[in-house]
Fold this sequence. Notes:
Layout: H1 2-19, E1 21-27, E2 31-36, E3 40-45, E4 49-55, E5 85-90, E6 93-98, E7 108-112, E8 115-121, E9 130-133, E10 139-143, E11 148-153, E12 157-161, E13 166-170, E14 178-182, E15 187-191, E16 197-203, E17 208-210, E18 217-218, H2 220-226, E19 242-247, E20 250-255, E21 258-262, E22 267-273, E23 278-284, E24 289-293
Parallel strand pairs: 2-6, 2-8, 3-7, 3-9, 8-10, 9-11, 10-12, 11-13, 12-14, 13-15, 14-23, 15-24, 16-23, 17-24
Antiparallel strand pairs: 1-4, 4-7, 5-6, 16-22, 18-22, 19-20, 20-21
Amino acid sequence: MKKQFIVLLSVLSIAMSASAQKQYKLSKSSGQLNLNIPGAIVEGYSGNEIIFSLPKNENEIVDERAKGLRVISASGFVDNTGLGLDVSEKGSEINVNAVNKKIDGVVSIKVPQNIKITFVNQSNIYQQEIILKNLNNEIEISTSYNKIKLENNTGPMNIKSLYGTVDATFADVIKGPVSIVSVYGHVDVSLPANVKANVDLSTSFGKIYAADELKIAIDKQLADDKNNVTVIGKPANSQVTITGVKSATGTINTVRGLAVYGGRSSEDIKGKINGGGSDFILKSNYQNVYLRVK
């Protein structure tokens, strides 16, 4: 009797969880999913449907006058999902757009493993965290302000963020190339200790941190080249006079009134982990780059 009671509770719990969400399903197991929404939680799974869900707002006031009508906006998109999303297909691509820029809640999307993912959001007002996990196909993200989390994805991937931070933990199997760039946010990446990778790490105004366990074999030739002064903008048929002045960031050289930076004003490191393998580009212009062991 006790066992039957536990089973009954489990069934009721699942039913209550399902009823607490609004869902829209699309029968699609391949192609490219283009997301142009404020944020989302995207998770790969072994199914043949794309499943969109949104938590029900228990405090939502039902507009009786709107019954039988659909939300539209100046964007031209129409809510054809009941979730505030316009989902349309064009060939092998599935395009997802927010009808209104602000969505009441975070959209969760389960996708079959053969689906490629692109995510774009350039809004400086409406942005949520973007979480992508357990995906085995290509990922491309371009955002201005979203915080980005990547969990146990295999790649390849191309991630670009202007102001958002990027935190990534990679699966044991990695299919490169991988490029993760944030201009004003940090880049924090965790890799398996046995990963085989070619790494290209850089920051203009921050620092680069790496776990000792990774034993990065650094290309020292690149480091030596950085100590050479390069003259940019030299007038044609002119003499150049260089005088060196020490600064905290390296050597500033005066070239006929132009400031030319040499030395260690930025950090650019290329190297190999476990003999090399998949290409990894990790870059933050104004913050730090962290490379950890998973």
